[in-house]
Structure formats: structure tokens, C-alpha cells
Design brief:
heterodimer; A: 410 residues; 2 domains; 12-stranded mixed beta sheet; two-stranded antiparallel ribbon; 13 helices; 45% helix; B: 222 residues; Rossmann fold; 6-stranded mixed beta sheet; 7 helices; 10 strands; 28% strand; globular
Chain lengths: 410, 222
């Protein structure tokens, strides 16, 4: 019973952990309505002033978005324009958002005061930034020499993907970029360009869709860029949950197949231990079975007794396993995972900071481990199988017992 | 009287030894028969053959009109369950079952409600004087009480014949006498047929008949 309980707990916990780490790798994407992020590396401007693409990203033209939107399996495409604004008095991060697309709608739902910008003269401010700078809804903020009325405050976190200080209409940001001489000096920017694409794709098709995105983007434009964590195709960087998997935990490196192999090894190990114990127990209970046969029990009657006992043992073992797993899940849910966000995805100019490492953004999440009833059901069936093995093994042994020999020798 | 057991030319060889050698005899319904003989004479083997616990090499054993020699293991088990009771020298009770459960044990594989089985077990327990010990476990009972449980268990299926192998062998003489008295009472009052193996001449002397074995052969039957 204890063996069944421990093995059930180990197998369930291992599978829940695998699923939890996979889920954790998706956490950086949870607020952006996308599962794949595409950016393009650009040129470093000679003069750091005025309006620039964040992280020296390159503009992505609308035709690329159109191509991605046609990829089979893509449910939706959102885009944004991330800018760094080096005003004389203050540095600002600005994100141009299309409030009608998936990302824009997700952001809209997180407005905690006021509303999204309703005109080009309005801007949404991030709550931490607003607090530090004393900005409230209705106040005036100056960005690149132009005054904007703060239409509301949005509750985004400073360490989330594509964090920004100000959020404004995409077209407003595009005009701002288009009119920036410093930016136009290094990149050919159109007033319809963006520099971040969020692709909404189903989790199950993610690998295949990522491959199709890579194929779509791998054209003659192969000015290879470098990124520490993203996958580089030509000068495009593609970020998916897989980008974060390796850094979360070594456990994450266990593939689904490996987890199943380990589970199978544990299961077979449990079966062998149980088989040995069963044979030992039958040996110990020879006299009892001899008595049962002597008073008129057939082998199948004894098998019935053994099967009921095995079923009770298996169910009790499974119950112990469930309790241990619930405890393990409860304790593991208290642990945290740290996910380093690539600089390009949470851009801040590190050269402005006293400690450049402060620009590195790390998200810390509680491990999103959950008790999955489906896994529990699979384990339950496996435990029943163990019970069946016990029963069959017992029957085979018991059928060989001769009552008179047992009772004579006892 | 009716013949309840008929044994014809029964033989059994274990290894090179012919333990039972061409034995023939009958037992009448309601008889109290003692089988006696020196150690190694084949008493216990003969009892095992009669009860269907052992397979004979030759001959036949007919109990209540059924020849048990040609029966399979499963058929023998069913036959024992319905027709035969057995009392062992070492009681052979299941230590994890209480008195009632031990008594009702032969009926548990039957499609009878547990409640009905336990009621019948209770009646059998009363018949052997164990009315106060129904919920006790074998480890909480004296040797005599344990043997009474075994006797009650042998009675539970209303057997045609009860075989007892040295039923007093593990008991002191006084307790042994009480057990024999119990068996005798059941024999007289219920007409229960008993065949018992015993070394004890005193017990044998109280029997209706003594079958004496030497080297697997009946040397005396009176």
C-alpha cells in the first residue's frame, strides 16, 4: 500500500511538475494575448536623443504582418511600436498600441483609472511610473515636446513583457517615429511600421506555427542579429514559451517523453516490488489458504478474496498517493520560479542607470503547479492494473497450493 | 442403517511407500468411528483420502452416493464445502477472523447473505457452548475453546460426515475429554456421523467402532 502510495505520488508529482514548468514558461506571455513575439534587430543610432526605437529594434513593415496573419494556425496578430523618448528633462518609454487588436484589448482591460486614449492628444500612464512622477488622470505629460492629456492609469507591472511608461494610440506613436530625424538617420521608418508583433497561436500547434513563422521570415533579408535568449532568424528574433523553458529549471529539460519513461520505470519498479511482496505474503499465508481450501474454498474463491484485498490495498494506496500528492502540490505551489526577460522584451536603456544590471528584468512567479484530475485518473487506472497484477500473481500461486500438504507441514 | 461412506480397494503411495494399501470398509449414517494405529500407519492419510483432501492412486471413496476419487480439485472443494466437515489437531482457525466468522467460513463463498451466515454461525456456536465468545479472536481463546470453534465450523454446512484428525491431540486430558463429550453429544443428539483419528484408547473406547490400521492396511475393524 505504501509502495503504491509513494509511486503514485512520485509519478503524479513528476507529471504535475513537468506541466507546471511548461505553464511557467508561458507566464511572461500571459498578459499580451500572444504566444509568439517577433521583433527585428536594427542599427544602433549614433546619437542617443529624441525618439528612437527601443533596443535599436528595426521597423517591421505591414506586409510582414500580413504574411504572418496568413500562416495556417495563427488565430490573430497584434502589433505595437515600442519607442524610447530621450527628452531633455526625462527619459520615457512609450508604446504605441492598436486598441482594437488582441494586445490592445488586453491592455484596455487593465486600465485601473480613467480610460484608454480616445484621441491622439491623450495617453495612458503606467501606475508605478505615474506614482513616481505624480501623474494622475487628467494631468498633462510632455513627450517629445508635445503635451498629452493623461486619459487613465493602467495597472501593468514594471517587469512584464513590453513594459512601458506611456501607452498611446499606435498611429500617434508611428507619426512620432516617422518624424524623428535621429531615427530616420539609421532606419527607414514608414508611418505604418511597428517593431513588435504578437502572434496568437494555440499552445498545441505552437511548435509547428513557430516553424512556419520562421519559414515566412527567413527571406533574403538575412542581416543576422544576436539575442541572448530568443531564436534568431535572419535579423528577426522569435520568442516563444520555449525561449524561457531552459532557464526556469533543469526539471524543465525533461521532455514529456522522458517524464513518461521515468513514470514507466517507477511503475515497473513498483510492480516488481509488489510482485515480490505478494509472493512473500502468499508464502506467509500458506496455512490460511490451506485452511480455506480444506473447508471448501476453490482457487477462484480464494482469488476473489485476494482480489478484494488487492483492490482495497490498491485503492488505499491510491488514496495515500493522492494525499501525498496534494501535500506535495500544496508545498510546491509555495515555491517560486524566476524568469529572466530578454532585454528587448522589457526594454530600458541600461546606460541611463547607475547600475546597468538594473535593466535586466526578472519575473518571479509562484510555481503554477496544479492538481490535474486527468493525470490522477491515469494513475488510478495504473494502480488498478497493479491490483490486477497482484490478483493474477496470487491466483497463479494459490492454484499450486495443496491443502493437505500445507496443513501436514504446518 | 444407510451407508454414508463406502471405501473400496483404496490405495495411496507416497514416494516408495504404500501408505494406504487396498483398504475397503463402509461407514453407516450416524456412526461414531475411530481410526487407530501406530505412527506412520496411514491414519491421517486415510482421513485425508476420505475427506477429499488427498487423491487416491487406486480404489474408490463414495460419500453420500458420490464417488469423490474422479473429482477435480474444484469439484472436491465444492464437495467438501457441502458434504464434509473437518476438525484438525491444531484447530486451524484464521487468526484474523473472530469466532463467528471462523465458524461461518465454509459458507462465505456461497451466495448467502453475510447476516444469514453469521446467524447460522451463532447457532452453531451455541450448540458447542461458545455463546459468550462470539466476537473473540482465536488468540483470545483457550485451546479447548478454539477446538470448539473448529467443531462448530465443521457443523455449519450440515455435513454428511465430519472427519476429525486427533481432535484432542493439542489439548490437556480434561479439555480433550470435554471435546470428545461434545462430539459424542452431537453424534447422539443430531445423528451426526463422525470419523476420527486418535491415539487415545479412552476416546476410541467410547466410539461405536474402531478401525485399526497397520502399515496402511486394516488389521481390525470392530
Amino acid at each position: 500500500m505504501i509502495v503504491i502510495g509513494l509511486v503514485a505520488c512520485m509519478v503524479m508529482t513528476l507529471n504535475f511538475l513537468g506541466a507546471a514548468y511548461k505553464e511557467a514558461s508561458r507566464l511572461p506571455f500571459q498578459d499580451i494575448q500572444g504566444t509568439i513575439i517577433v521583433q527585428k534587430n536594427g542599427n544602433v543610432p549614433e546619437t542617443i536623443s529624441g525618439v528612437l526605437m527601443s533596443c535599436s529594434l528595426a521597423p517591421i513593415h505591414q506586409d510582414v504582418i500580413g504574411k504572418i496573419g496568413k500562416i495556417e494556425g495563427v488565430n490573430g496578430v497584434s502589433s505595437a511600436l515600442s519607442l524610447w523618448v530621450f527628452d531633455i528633462d526625462h527619459f520615457k518609454r512609450v508604446l504605441g498600441v492598436d486598441w482594437q487588436d488582441g494586445y490592445g484589448k488586453s491592455l484596455s482591460s487593465r486600465v485601473i483609472d480613467g480610460s484608454i486614449p480616445k484621441s491622439d492628444g491623450e495617453v495612458l500612464v503606467e501606475k508605478t511610473y505615474a506614482g513616481k512622477n505624480g501623474l494622475n488622470t487628467g494631468a498633462i505629460a510632455t513627450i517629445s515636446g508635445k503635451q498629452y492629456t493623461i486619459s487613465g492609469v493602467v495597472g501593468t507591472a514594471a517587469n512584464e513583457v513590453v513594459a512601458s511608461d506611456f501607452y498611446l494610440n499606435l498611429q500617434t506613436a508611428q507619426d512620432m517615429a516617422y518624424q524623428s530625424k535621429n531615427l530616420q538617420a539609421v532606419e527607414s521608418v514608414d508611418n505604418t511600421d511597428v517593431n513588435i508583433i504578437f502572434i496568437n497561436a494555440g499552445q498545441q500547434d505552437l511548435t509547428a506555427i513557430t516553424q512556419r513563422v520562421k519559414q515566412t521570415l527567413s527571406g533574403p533579408d538575412t542581416n543576422a542579429g544576436q539575442t541572448p535568449l530568443g531564436q534568431t532568424i535572419g535579423n528577426y528574433n522569435i520568442y516563444t514559451p520555449a525561449t524561457f523553458e531552459d532557464q526556469i529549471s533543469t526539471v524543465m529539460r525533461l521532455s514529456d517523453k522522458l517524464i513518461w519513461v521515468i513514470s514507466l520505470v517507477l511503475f515497473i519498479g513498483a510492480c516488481l516490488i509488489i510482485a515480490r511482496n505478494t509472493l512473500h505474503i502468499i508464502l506467509e499465508r500458506r496455512r490460511e489458504f490451506g485452511i480455506l481450501k480444506a473447508v471448501g474454498f476453490r482457487s477462484r474463491d480464494i482469488q476473489k478474496v485476494i482480489s478484494i484485498e488487492a483492490a482495497i490495498q490498491a485503492l488505499a494506496g491510491f488514496a495515500v498517493g493522492l494525499l501525498l500528492t496534494a501535500l506535495a502540490v500544496f508545498l510546491l505551489a509555495k515555491t517560486t520560479v524566476s524568469i529572466a526577460i530578454p532585454w528587448e522584451l522589457s526594454p530600458y536603456p541600461h546606460f541611463l542607470l547607475a547600475n546597468p544590471d538594473d535593466a535586466n528584468v526578472v519575473q518571479t512567479h509562484f510555481l503554477p503547479i496544479k492538481f490535474e484530475p486527468v493525470y490522477a485518473l491515469v494513475i488510478f487506472l495504473a494502480v488498478l492494473l497493479i491490483g490486477l497484477i497482484i490478483s493474477l500473481l496470487s491466483t497463479w500461486q494459490i492454484s499450486k497450493l495443496k491443502p493437505v500438504e500445507i496443513l501436514r507441514n504446518e | 442403517m444407510n451407508k454414508i461412506v463406502t471405501v473400496n480397494h483404496l490405495s495411496k503411495t507416497l514416494g516408495d511407500i504404500r501408505v494406504i494399501d487396498n483398504v475397503s470398509f463402509d461407514i453407516e449414517k450416524g456412526e461414531f468411528v475411530a481410526i487407530q494405529g501406530p505412527s506412520g500407519s496411514g491414519k491421517t492419510t486415510l482421513l485425508g483420502l476420505l475427506a477429499g483432501l488427498e487423491k487416491a492412486d487406486e480404489g474408490s471413496v463414495v460419500i453420500g452416493g458420490e464417488d469423490i476419487i474422479s473429482m477435480t480439485e474444484d469439484q472436491l472443494a465444492l464437495f467438501r464445502r457441502s458434504n464434509v466437515g473437518f476438525v484438525f489437531q491444531s484447530f486451524n482457525l484464521i487468526p484474523t477472523l473472530n469466532v463467528l466468522e471462523n465458524i461461518g467460513l465454509p459458507l462465505f463463498p456461497e451466495p448467502i447473505q453475510r447476516k444469514v451466515i453469521l446467524e447460522r454461525a451463532k447457532k452453531a456456536a451455541m450448540d458447542v457452548g461458545l455463546g459468550e465468545r462470539l466476537k473473540h479472536y482465536p488468540g483470545q481463546l483457550s485451546g479447548g475453546e478454539q477446538q470448539r470453534v473448529a467443531v462448530a465450523r465443521s457443523l455449519i454446512n450440515n455435513p454428511k460426515v465430519i472427519f476429525a484428525d486427533e481432535p484432542t491431540g493439542n489439548l490437556d486430558s480434561k479439555t480433550g475429554e470435554k471435546i470428545v463429550e461434545l462430539l459424542r453429544t452431537l453424534n447422539r443428539e443430531k445423528g451426526q456421523t463422525f470419523v476420527l483419528v486418535t491415539h487415545d484408547d479412552k476416546i476410541a473406547s467410547e466410539s461405536d467402532r474402531i478401525v485399526r490400521l497397520v502399515d496402511g492396511r486394516i488389521v481390525n475393524d470392530h
